[in-house]
């Protein structure tokens, strides 16, 4: 389904009981809402599940130019408003977690809880060169040169070799991402700097991370956990960046237990 929000057409799906509390799922860079397929069956039995394609991804418009996290957060806020959703649990992985932090700091009343998965609250200056390189590659050569390096960061070597049924669809998502949208979102991510603002968050918060995530490592999740009072940190073994796909049962169990415990 599509709706116009914040001046763009946004693709979304809604599943689960119509009167249940809403859980919004926000995906990583260079994927789509389909990234959440393993979690959908368990979530949709108890919650109303909103998945959407972020600006520049999937079936959502990909305007040219640099995006900002404030803009991506406003997209989400306008989407919720357009769908008549006043409050939601937010589950964001990687870029989706960055959007969630940004929106929760701006509009905490929108949230019942916050699950920040394989994400970070700051991109240090020494890491910004890598983002400039990705922007240059996508802008001049398209997505193909980025596919395999991304897959190597997102999954452990053992999993890549054994589970092509999971990894190949992710390759297709990366390959199918609009270079314009990818570049726009890379600009947003590279400016991330929220760590010192996080103590303002008082929402029930789960911080979930793969033990072998090289891009947003356990240390980044620990920095978030230490600054959000009362947050819970869960580290999943044998998982890299897309921990919801590499360890779907453990990820889903940790998430549903957390959501069920939120008053």
Secondary structure layout:
Layout: E1 2-5, E2 8-15, E3 22-26, H1 40-44, E4 48-52, H2 69-82, E5 88-93, H3 95-106, E6 111-117, H4 128-141, H5 144-154, H6 157-162, H7 164-176, H8 179-190, E7 205-210, H9 218-227, E8 232-236, H10 243-246, H11 248-261
Parallel strand pairs: 3-4, 3-5, 5-6, 6-7, 7-8
Antiparallel strand pairs: 1-2, 2-4
Helix pairs in contact: 2-3, 4-8, 5-7
Short description:
With 263 residues, the chain is α/β, with parallel strands linked by helices. Helices cover 44% and strands 17% of the residues.
Textual characterization of the structure:
It contains eleven helices and eight strands. The relative contact order is 0.17. The protein is globular and about 45 Å long. Helix 2 crosses helix 3. By secondary structure, it is an alpha/beta fold.
CATH topology: Rossmann fold
Q: pLDDT average, as an integer? A: 98
Helix content: 40-55%
- How would the global form be characterised? globular
Number of helices: 11
Report the uncertain regions. none
User: What is the end-to-end distance?
Assistant: 30 Å
User: Major beta sheet, specifics?
Assistant: 8 strands, mixed
Strand order of the largest sheet: 1-2-4-3-5-6-7-8
Content of β-strand? 15-25%
Q: What is the CATH-assigned architecture?
A: 3-Layer(aba) Sandwich
Structural class: alpha/beta
CATH superfamily: Alpha/Beta hydrolase fold, catalytic domain
Question: Over all CA atoms, what is the radius of gyration?
Answer: 17 Å
CATH class wording: Alpha Beta
- Strand tally, please? 8
Tell me the number of structural domains: 1
Topology order in helix (H) and strand (E) letters: EEEHEHEHEHHHHHEHEHH
């Amino acid at each position: 389904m599509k709706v116009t929000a914040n001046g763009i057409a946004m693709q979304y799906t809604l599943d689960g009981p119509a009167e249940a509390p809403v859980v919004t799922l926000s995906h990583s860079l260079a994927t789509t809402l389909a990234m959440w397929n393993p979690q959908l069956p368990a979530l949709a039995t108890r919650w109303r599940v909103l998945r959407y394609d972020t600006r520049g991804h999937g079936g959502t418009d990909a305007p040219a130019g640099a995006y900002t996290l404030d803009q991506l957060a406003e997209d989400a806020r306008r989407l919720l408003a357009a769908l008549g959703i006043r409050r939601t649990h937010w589950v964001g992985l990687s870029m989706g977690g960055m959007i969630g932090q940004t929106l929760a700091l701006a509009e905490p009343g929108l949230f019942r809880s916050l699950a920040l998965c394989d994400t970070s609250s700051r991109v240090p200056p020494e890491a910004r060169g890598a983002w400039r390189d990705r922007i240059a590659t996508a802008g001049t050569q398209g997505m193909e040169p980025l596919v395999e390096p991304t897959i190597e960061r997102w999954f452990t070597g053992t999993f890549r070799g054994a589970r092509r049924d999971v990894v190949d669809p992710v390759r297709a998502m990366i390959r199918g991402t609009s270079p314009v949208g990818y570049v726009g979102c890379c600009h947003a991510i590279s400016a991330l700097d929220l760590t010192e603002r996080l103590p303002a968050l008082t929402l029930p918060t789960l911080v979930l991370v793969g033990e072998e995530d090289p891009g947003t490592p356990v240390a980044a999740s620990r920095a978030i956990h230490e600054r959000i009072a009362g947050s819970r940190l869960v580290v999943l073994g044998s998982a890299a960046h897309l921990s919801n796909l590499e360890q779907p049962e453990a990820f889903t169990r940790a998430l549903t237990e957390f959501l069920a415990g939120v008053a």
